[in-house]
Amino acid sequence: MARIFLALLAGLLFCNPAISSIPPGDSLDLTRSWVGYISLFGFAAAYVLVVLEERIHLRKSKPMLAAAGLVWLVIAIAYNQAGLPDKVAEGIRHDFLEYAELFFFLLVAMTYINSMLERGVFDELRHWLVSRGFGYRSLFWLTGILSFLLSPIADNLTTALIMCAVVMAVGQGNSRFIGVSCTNIVVAANAGGAFSPFGDITTLMVWQKGILHFTDFLNLFVPSLVNYLVPAVFMQFAVPTGKPPAAPEEGGRRLMYGGIQMALLFLFTIATVVVLHNFLHVPPAYGMMGGLLYLKLYGYYLGLKSRAWWQSYDDPPSEHDDPYDFDVFSKIGQAEWDTLFFFYGVILTVGGLGFIGYLGIASEAMYGYLGYTNANILIGVMSAIVDNIPVMFAVLTMNPPMDNVQWLLVTLTAGVGGSLLSIGSAAGVALMGQARGHYTFTTHLRWTPIIALGYGASIWVHLLINT
């Protein structure tokens, strides 16, 4: 491992980039200038503050927003001095468009989750699970398996959000159960998303590039399953014994009017995203915005029902008794904005580093010094620290002459490598916001050695059965 990082360092310091930076075209080489050094320092300092969030109580979006502003500010100064201001605008628009698609996708998913929470869908599911007599360990395995099976269809982020809501509802008051279950969900969702083009953004990028066919991804099913099961077997021993207590509102109303309908609309939204993207090549965010339209129209219908309900009383009851009261904009406002702005900071900061040329140099150094297998394994480790999207984009841009086994390997490692740290995947970052105080960077870090064991086992199984 030391040899790998020394080779990477040598490439960063001495190699010239062999590929165009982002966006393509004439650009300045700023990798060995004050601009590059300040940008690297800003990015590193921001991530240190993100890691220390629970100790210093500084929301993770703040340092990443500062890093994004710093990186593009120094880039803009350098390019304006060189008389190329338009290139900076192109680079920012390129990264901002990537963020905008992710933003609207997440915003709609979070709005649906908040709506179903208010309607008591997850409280009803919790009641069903508790009434069936499932213990904490059974629930641990049930939510993990469902995450692994749903993520290839619904994508790893949406699946993680849904399963986390279930865990939060079932494990009320048991922070230990919530923490280890959320870690398990992140690993399962990332593993499940690795063997489907729709399961993760990185797999989608490889599929859209035409490098692998749709059926080729199915070869990663067994390695992905190993990646999930190995750490899950160890983590189950940290799950508390016993069963969840009965909900305090056991005798009251759990599932409100419209809850089932909203859950069905969410499934229909996912189906819309998959169909539009698969057959018409429409970006997933566009389909998700169509899903928001479904919810808004249903909210309008509930508003009509609410007005009719109020008019049926001569003596109006309390507004808390209105079974049809629903405001979709309040659910949008309850989205995890800290997480959304954190993603903005990450994408713009890493995009700036790519614009400077560091991602291209890193890819050249890795594949030139380490060979395909070692480089592709390191890609997964890097995706846990940086983010798998720009890392995979750098690999696709360099387009090394690899066979299908190696392309499947880098697809696997980029997809599941993010599970090594909570900040390494969209699912982990989103759950840190959704289960704030229960699932943290430190909570996940305790299991990193075991997750790394599963990471290595999945690579070994892939090379064993797919070579």
From TrEMBL:
Leader sequence segment: none
Name the record gives this protein: Sodium:proton antiporter
Species for this entry: Candidatus Marimicrobium litorale
UniProt topology in membrane: Multi-pass membrane protein
UniProt family annotation: Belongs to the NhaD Na(+)/H(+) (TC 2.A.62) antiporter family.
Alphabetical keyword list: Antiport, Ion transport, Membrane, Sodium, Sodium transport, Transmembrane, Transmembrane helix, Transport
Major localization class: membrane
Citrate transporter-like domain sequence ranges: 47-289, 334-415
PANTHER family, alphabetized: SODIUM/PROTON ANTIPORTER 1-RELATED (PTHR43269), SODIUM_PROTON ANTIPORTER 1-RELATED (PTHR43269:SF2)
Spans traversing the lipid bilayer: 36-52, 64-84, 96-117, 138-171, 177-196, 217-239, 259-280, 292-310, 341-361, 373-395, 407-433, 445-465
Cellular localization per UniProt: Membrane
InterPro entries named in the record: Cit_transptr-like_dom, NhaD-like
Keyword Disulfide bond part of the UniProt annotation: no
